[in-house]
Amino acid sequence: MRPSRSFPFAVSSLPFTKALLAYAGIAIAGFLWLIAQLQRGVVRLPKSSLLIALGAAVLVWFASAVLSGNASLAFSGFGHEVGTFVFMAFLGVGVLLVAALTRSEKDAFRLYGALGAAAAVLFVLQILHSAFGIATII
Asked: Are 78 and 67 contacting, i.e. CB atoms less than 8 angstroms apart?
């Protein structure tokens, strides 16, 4: 189970919170990755046929949004819907960042460790929420 699928509580609706977390996380990670690449002086992107297929899927989502009866709703949605082109484009960028950041087995191990630590934190928060009825921590 991914940590983003198991929020113990939220101030707003769960889909809104997940979308906002995805937007913010990918934007921050992309910005930090870009700064690191510019400091090195070389921007290296991974070459993979899976990433080309991902780019094609995002382009198909774009074509679907353009040809939709309500293009503005298909592009960005009415709030932070997860089925819009903008959300899918952000997820595509997120997959590209994961591919760029996990070039070795050691990097992949660190990524899984970070996901496991996030899941452990959410588990503890859920226990606190269930046992003591804590509605918010922040």
From this structure: no
| pLDDT, greater one: 19 or 5 | 19
pLDDT surpassing 70 at residue 4: no
Q: Which of 31, 19, 29 is nearest to 84 (CA)?
A: 19
Q: Can you give the pLDDT at residue 126?
A: 83
- Tokens 């003591």, residue? 132
Query: Which string of DSSP letters, residue by residue, matches 54-119?
Result: HHHHHHHHHHHHHTSSSHHHHHH-SSS-TTSHHHHHHHHHHHHHHHHH--SHHHHHHHHHHHHHHH
Residues 133, 79: Cα–Cα separation, whole Å:
29
